[in-house]
Amino acid sequence: AAAGLSYVGGYVINTYKSYDNFLQDKYALLPAVIIICVAVVMFIIGLVGCCATFRESRVGLRLFLAIILVIFIAEVSAFVLGFVYREKVKTDVQSTMRSVFDKYDGKNSESTVVDYLQEQLRCCGVKNYSDWTTTMWFNATGNNSVPLSCCRQEMKNCTGQLDQPQEL
């Protein structure tokens, strides 16, 4: 389990590099760091439990039980806090994404990240394609279209025009 969590934490940190323009807050990596720390702690606790069982130590087994109970309480607390603050996190991510979308010009590094994100997640805009109508890029181009990264991958002749929403 510890190895699996370590892999997940490392994967999240590695994936963060692709989306760091959207997650400008330095605390965005905090969950991944916590996952890796939990993996290390799980490994140590597992080692204590195995050694206590192997040596048939009552003190070691009681220590193991106490640690497991503390971890269970921490997990319940983390779940409750995650549930309570989920809307705040959602709002913060959406506002950061909107600010990155506002900087879109089709040429800068933020634009490349926006295009990559839309292609990988198969989405368009923060909530939907209409989010593009409020950006400076949309108003500057004046062609009533969204970036081509909004087009469905199976649509070969998509132009990004808003009058053809079925292609977005």
UniProtKB/TrEMBL annotation:
Compartmental location: Membrane
Stretches that traverse the bilayer: 27-51, 63-85
Pfam families reported for this sequence: Tetraspanin (PF00335)
GO cellular component: plasma membrane
Membrane topology annotation: Multi-pass membrane protein
UniProt KW keywords: Membrane, Transmembrane, Transmembrane helix
Name by which UniProt lists this protein: TSN36 protein
